Amino acid sequence: MKSFKRFLLLTIVASLAVFAAACGNSNNGSSDGTSAEGGEELEGSVVIDGSGTVFPFMSVMAEKYMTEAQEGVSVEVSRAGTSAGFKKFLVEDGTDFNNASRQIKDEEKAQADELGMEVKEMKVALDGLTIVINKENDWAKELTEQEIIDIFLAEGNKKKWSDVRSDFPDEEIKTYGPNENHGTYEFFWENILEEKDLAEGTNLQQEYSTLVDLVSKDKNAIGFFGYGYYESNKDKLTAVKVDFGNGPVEPSLDTIAEDGEYANFTRPVFTYLNVGLAKEKPQVLDYAIYTMQNAQKVASETGFAPLTDEEIQKSVEELEGLK
């Protein structure tokens, strides 16, 4: 009887040990089942705003984090636009992160300095500015880089499609794009149009979904936004193949690279971290580290070209150094 009782006691202890180990190894971490904080359960919130272009990437990232890593943390992602987002970020008690489809400007850096705020730039993926047309448009599927610039420039004076090429229809061109709140607009205006005036009557919108809808319903429309929005609306729009001088190039995850065939229209996209808040709130730093650890996977899932292993490793190490 004593032997049986001893056996029963050992069995119970062993079972409890197995149960505890199983609980300790539950999926409370990143995609490999370990959290950035080494398995610690966190609570609280993470507040993110900014770029509409980066929004799909960060929305998926937030969902993965809340279901795979830290169920006790609430991650809120909004999309006011890059510039509007920086206004919410660069204030006392501002957002934890600001997504951006352009780099922070000097005047925004100066604002941060005035506030005594340390800001960390986190490059998360690569995006390709994509020129889109209506599905019924069968004449402008391939355009040169200069033709695109002339269409969107006021001084290009391309008011009808026949002004671009004589064999194009004698119909008025309708130009569309995101408004000035968006980094995509700023990238296009600053880097491609070289800060010259847009064509008169260009229809600029706050919401990318509205742009998709407008172009999809206008046979003579041509617009621009990030590749991810085209990727998720291929059934409604056609992406223009752009000839940069060596033949037409279709935007894709393979061609969108800083030294790739689509390089002229390729840009990095970012999120910016308030370092002070990251040091005060463990969940904010944990989310930042998780984002970089999973950036390549989420980029590919949401229409972005992923960063290199070396870039990811460097960024993670820098974030780890903030602990």
UniProtKB/TrEMBL annotation:
It holds the Pfam family PBP_like_2. It comes from the Bacteria. It is found in: Cell membrane. Keywords: Cell membrane, Lipoprotein, Membrane, Palmitate, Phosphate transport, Signal, Transport. It is a lipid-anchor. Its main location: membrane. Residues 37-263 form the PBP domain. Residues 1-20 form the signal peptide. The keyword NADP does not apply. NCBIfam families: ptsS_2 (TIGR02136). Part of the ABC transporter complex PstSACB involved in phosphate import. The complex is composed of two ATP-binding proteins (PstB), two transmembrane proteins (PstC and PstA) and a solute-binding protein (PstS). Belongs to the PstS family. This is Phosphate-binding protein. It comes from Sutcliffiella tianshenii.
